[in-house]
Amino acid sequence: MQSHLLERLSRNSSQMVKIPPKQQRKPDYRYFLTGSSFTGSWSDALRAMDGYGLYTFPDGSEYRGYFVKGLFHGYGLLHLSKPYGITFRGVFAEGRLSEMLDIWFDDNLHVEINLQGWKADFDEWHYCCEGDRRYAIEQSEGLAAVGPKPFKRIGQPSFIPKKMYDLGEGLYNPSTRMIIKRPSPFPTYHYVACGDERHKIIKGYRSGTPLTIKDVPVETCRRIIELNLKSEEELQEAPPSCNYNPIKERKEFLKGLRRAFGKKPENLQARSLTDLEENESFASVGTVWGVSTSSCSSFTCESLTVDREEQMETTRKYDKIVWGCLPSGQSLLVYGGA
In what ranges is there compositional bias, type Basic and acidic residues (predicted)? Predict the structure, then answer.
């Protein structure tokens, strides 16, 4: 009945998000009327997400982590799809982000930030800052000369209605002080309440109002080029500052996996889960790989019973290795009983 209702709504209602036809739906996935989908631990009693799983929003953004009674609860990764391309790692409590632990972009550029609660310290951030404003391509190939009519954005410039300003994330209307046409997953409209921010937008952003562009004097162009060359010479004296190091990130990730299997890095060869010894896969990996932690050695009714307390403790130890320290005294999941 539920699948018939989904097909009927997706076929007849133009207001509903299109739900994939039955033959195109992935196995072990649940599809909701909002256009979202979920795969993972599902509680039939609660008829809700409860445990570890992957929740996909209609725009492609994903939450991968723990759920309790249908809400984000525990450690998790929240990835925002394009055009943002940012991943947040943190601790969620009853559907809300309560603690931020880490941030990185889709190109593996890591945000060097010291988070203390909701206060952020960017002293360790050296990429595209005041001391070195170069992008990665400019660090490797040098700075390009700035001309009198530089491009404002990559590709063809978008159409800007008259008396509106292009902010990149949307269009600003100074008469209503509203930013409109913002891409998902953020709200379509945003009110700019800060007077200083409104002044910066009007002064520094591109407008749809026709403007007369005057030619820059030759002497001014020469001065611009001289300053660019001087700036490049000064920047080359210092080493490039970029927080992206994919080799280092990959090594750290592999070290975490190796520690999870209880092996030293120099003695461990790459193996699949099927190549692991029985006690290794059961004791070290546990239910993260979907393996029961029950100690029964034969197929009986008792062998189907999972020790919930042992299962949670094994998962907790694994997360501590992969994700770092856990909050003291807190459990990742909350259950009414074993």
Answer: 1-10
